[in-house]
Amino acid sequence: GVLAALLAVTLGTFIGLVAGTWGGAIDAVLMRLVDALLAIPRLFVLLLALAVWDRVPLAALVLLLGLTGWYGTSRLVRGEARRLHREEFVRAAEALGSGRWRIAFRHLLPNVAGPVLVAATLGIGDVMLLEAGLSFLGLGVRPPTPSLGGMIQESRSVFATAPWTSIFPGLAIVLAVLAVNLVGDALRETLAPRSACPHCSKCATCA
Fold first, then answer.
1. What sign does the CA torsion over 97, 100, 101, 105 have?
2. d(CA 183, CA 174)
3. How confident is the prediction along the chain (207 residues), in pLDDT tens digits per residue?
4. Rounded distance, CA 26 to CA 32, Å?
5. What are phi and psi of 203, to 5 degrees?
6. CB of 39 within 8 A of CB of 94?
7. CA-based max dimension of the chain
8. Which residue, of 36, 73, 103, 151, is most buried by count of CB atoms within 10 Å of its CB?
9. What Å distances lie between residue 150 and 106, 154, 174, 176, CA to CA?
10. What is residue 147's three-state secondary structure?
11. What are the backbone angles phi and psi of residue 144, rounded to the nearest 5°?
């Protein structure tokens, strides 16, 4: 989950920065590509790709999950980059002669790191659920490599006599995804812009 989410966030951040910094035709082409990819269900693409292989290596599965999960991040980063492009510090960097690559990675990237970090954290849980579902269908991680989804799939035949063989892997998936999402929510609240008023919940102006 971590590796696939990291790959997806890295690729999405790069494409979003390029689209948001260059604008114009490059922005239009990249965003239309993202729109086209978003129109295709991710699960359908994964099922189609995994059906081609008889046995998918773990590294290839991580690569597939990462390469199909960057679309939303690219749109998020592109929107933030376009917003920041109107800020004075970016205009000052342009006036001092900074190139677009320097502006993108020296000035814009640090300012979009917060939303990207939150998106990456929440993406880990999505990847974990997706991998568990694929392994349950027999298309993800194959034995003898352990997988929680694979454990649930293998225990179906003994569920009536030994239900804990399915319950505990399922609970492990739920708790792991819940923990990751709680971390993502905490990061979102921590990195969110705060009001300048120290008593915004009490003062008459903010109320």
1. positive
2. 14
3. 889 989 999 999 999 989 888 888 888 999 999 988 888 888 888 888 877 776 778 888 888 888 888 888 899 899 888 888 878 888 888 788 878 788 888 888 888 888 888 888 888 888 888 888 888 887 777 777 788 888 888 888 888 888 888 889 889 989 988 988 888 888 777 766 554 444 444 444 444
4. 10
5. -70, 155
6. no
7. 73
8. 73
9. 44, 6, 15, 16
10. coil
11. -85, 5
Determine whether 134 is exposed, middle or buried from the number of CB atoms within 10 Å of its CB (0-12, 13-18, 19+): buried
Closest CA to 129 of 38, 190, 83, 65: 65
CB 101 within 8 A of CB 43: no
Neighbours of 109 (CB within 10 A): 17
Task: Name the token pair of 100.
Answer: 């677009």
Tell me the residue length of the chain.
207
Structure tokens at 25: 């035709």
- Nearest CA to 13 among 114, 109, 156, 153? 109
User: How far is the C-alpha of 207 from the C-alpha of 203, rounded, in Å?
Assistant: 6
DSSP H or E run through 11: helix 2-22
